[in-house]
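Quick question: what would this complex look like in 3D?
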Amino acid sequence: MSFKLVTLVVIVLGAIAIAQLVRLYEHSSKLRNRREEDIPNRDNKLNANMMLTFVILLFGGFIWLMSTYGFTGRGEAASEHGKTYDWLLNINLALIVVVFFLTNFLLFFFSFKYVRKPGVKAYFYPHNNKLELIWTVVPAIVLAFIIILGLKTWNGITSDASKEAVRVELFSEQFKWTARYSGNDNKLGYFDYKLTTDKNQLALLTTATLDSAIRLMEVGSNDGTILGIKLLEEKLNNPRNIFIPKDRVKMEDDLDRKTRLLRLLYQMKARHNSNLDARAYDDVIEADTLHLVKNQDYEFNFRAKDVIHSAYFPHFRAQINTVPGLTTRFKFKPTITTSEMKKKMNNPDFNFVLMCNKICGGAHYKMKMIVVVETPSSYKKWMKTKKTFKDEYLAAPAPATTAEATADTLVVAVN
Amino acid sequence: MAALAHEAHVHHDAHSHDHHEEGFVSKYIFSQDHKMIGKQFLMTAVFMGVVAMLLSILFRIQLAWPGESSDFLSMFLGETWAPGGVLKENMYLGLVTIHGTIMVFFLLTGGLSGTFSNMLIPLQLGARDMASGFLNMLSYWMFFLSSVIMLSSLFIETGPAMAGWTIYPPLSALPQAVEGSGLGMTLWLFSMTIFIASSLIGSLNYIVTVLNLRTKGMTMTRMPLTIWAFFVTAVLGVLSFPVLLSAALLLMMDRLAGTSFYLSDIIVNGEMLENHGGSPLLYQHLFWFLGHPEVYIVLLPALGLSSEIISTNSRKPIFGYRAMIGSILAIGFLSFIVWGHHMFVTGMNPFLGSVFVFTTLLIAIPSAVKVFNYITTLWRGSLVLTPAMLFAIGLVSTFITGGVTGIILADSALDIAVHDTYFVVAHFHVVMGMSAVFGMFAGVYHWFPKMYGKMMNTRLGYIHFWITIIGAYGVFFPMHFVGLAGAPRRYYDYSVYNEFDKPAADMMMDLNVIITVFAIIASIGQLVFLFNFFYSIFRGPKAVQNPWRSNTLEWTTPVEHVHGNWPGALPEVHRWPYDYSKPGAEEDFISQIVPLAEGEEEH
């Protein structure tokens, strides 16, 4: 409260003080017969000097920032294409710094030098075709050079990954990342978002996951938190139940939605080939950290569950958005292990990171995953401790056989 | 000749007779006079600008001192949005979103183009008013209505839109994803729909006026560069704003009618949605098809104003008048085929990306031509450093500084690691924000005598300029380095860096404090302007007819506004507007209405 009062008083007093000063200034102008639009030479000169001072300050500030903060931050590029990236960035930075210095200097220096002097008339100089041609053609040539270099790098970065590249999927949702390794076959299992259940957060497609997704739609979850179609119908059809209209509409909508989704699931099941199960079963899912092997090519596949996120690996100079309904890809080869990077950054607590770089909701800023780059042997050791999707999923109590039975009969009916 | 003029005079007197008994309402509120409408746009924009600046100070406080209690925050946001004086995560996003929306659309589009196109097009062309006074009035009132709706969204229970000013779906389409995507987003979309209609009506009016209502002798190549800039701006607006409307309309249908234009395979908050087959990328294409021309809708008027101001106050013709027109046209054309450079890493086909690299970098050529022409205009001039001139020079500086970083962002390969970081934020604030705001200030200082018949205080103008340029560079220069270090934009708290790279976190916090301090200084500097502006409207010294000794037609009208602009016949134009310091002339300026002397060549 006192803060508000003080602020208010300061503002009011400040305004009054300025008003008085301005009135004083106006009276003195009137006395000296000076009009507001006549800029006295003294003012003109003062501003001209300020122009020169300002440009020196601007350049000084730039050099200070560059030397203090310019080369910190992300550190050395830790991926193969990242080295090309840094090289190209440095070329471009050097070029734009030169242009920045040159043109700003001319601008402010001319503003200083050619300020009005008594008796000196401006030079009537409306155009000069030769000059104009020069400063059209020179930037065009420089830009052509930049475009060619840039596109060459871009094509290299975005071309298809090699067959040997290890496939890893990164799954994004509010507000976390989950990694899925493609396992021994180096093939990521298929997925469909409709298969998402508590045990199958990444919605992988196998015969078993299909069945449990159908079961969830039909009979709901075991703990009763999610109502299946059967229970919903029973509740709605029971004349003894009385609902608030709003709740009733909500339940009816839920029922309709589930019925339609169920039909799609049955269609999926009818088309499903159980030979594809193996593709998903050897995948390894890991939500805590992303483990990568040094000097190994990777192709990352990105998925989003809810809204757009962006997979941003600042130290590897890699980034691509993750888009609901679309798989995006980015490939890179890490070239520095985490422990090597700790030494290079002179920081034993340093870690590579995967951050979210597209606004995705309140906790957007917390959405990240630590990335560990290691040697093949320590990676293998780590991988051994992990269970495959099959072990994880099938270790859980199997879906009720009755559901499977009904499912089969229904498929026949559909056919 | 004299008899003819006399006749026209008499005729006009008879004509203007019935306008003399204008009531308060038709003169000040539902006015159809372009000068009054221009001033209405300016007043509304100044208010919106102050609000947007205040919002930015609120979130800058959070960024510099995360988690620390601030009386300033609790004063403006209360317990709901800043419990205990600490900003809520969601409100941070809301503030960022509304700050961006107001600045881009309401201040720099509505405010800049609305004010100066309205004010200057008829005056500099020698027209009595806009082609349609009524549509012009409608344009302002729709702008006003949309401003009110946008502001009202700040006060609702679930908060304003929180998906960033680009409102990418699905985040903006799903109230389950963030609370601001509920009523707040609906209001945002309604407000913008009305805004687009307003902008469209205004732009059509500007185009028709420029094409049809030029006075005798005012050929297209004798138009001041301001008019060329407003004209091309209006064309850009007409061609691109409807696309934003269609983007917004499809989003509204996804939100309200259950369609799937932008939504596919989504599970949000545990709820499995049925939408399938839509594409969030479609929205981005539609949005940036407006979004990029929008940058030039903001910039071109500022460049036009500064061309006029720099030429007048250098007492020299603008260098390369035709090249300047050519650049404006080239920038206008290219601005339509570069939108994809906002989408290099969105999952768009990389080959398409490389096409956009090519077209985007081409824009640097006409931009470079403009910069060199400005600098050559200053060369061997006789500079009068009025506040308007200072701001115009400042504009050229920020146009350079912000422009060169664009070369990095336009390069798809380099964009990968700086996309959506603070480097981008710094880039567009310098090149678009600062340049356009400087252009707007330059315009206000320069044409204030024409708008209000009074003079603004020059020395307060100087103070305002130096605080603003130092403050603004102080804010956005360090921001480039935060971005180069990899800091993503729209983060609520950068201390998350502590968990994996403490030195980087320290650096970001250091720079964030510097940035916020400069932001506070710069915003206090704006109080000097506000004071000067309002004080001068009421108590400023009376202006003379042509205070800056300028050539263009608006300075041949009387200081007191009259309906129809010129009390007698419309002026006739005999020369281009840049005959400053022409050899052989007595004065260092020759108004456009002065016929060529015997043996005198047109430039």
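Answer marked as accepted. Residues 116 and 217 of chain A are 82 Å apart (CA to CA).
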